[in-house]
Amino acid sequence: MDPNTKRFLKTQMVWIAISLAISFGLSLLLPFPYSLVAIIGVFLAMNYFMRQRQMRRMGMRGGGFFGTGQGSMFGQRGIRYVCIMCGAKHNGGSCPNCGSKLKKASFED
Ligand SMILES: [Zn+2]
What is the distance between the alpha carbons of residues 94 and 31, in angstroms, rounded to a whole number? Predict the structure, then answer.
């Protein structure tokens, strides 16, 4: 695990602890249905801000609550290639499936 990922995981732990503490506080302060809504709101907000921080640090932009950027949560996988002929994913060079050199870059994992 590289130092960047380790630091990110540590930061994430801190944020999870903070959001748990806030959730616990809210569940004491608010009656049931409201506390649940508030807790979900806190978690989504935390998730959103963590995502934004992470994006900025990695020099990426965009990405919403869900969808893009999911891979970055668990370390960068780098660019992958998709074979144009058969659709197999590989790391570059020629396709291990059909041997074709025709490929396009893919950022999904
Ligand atoms: Zn292929």
Answer: 61
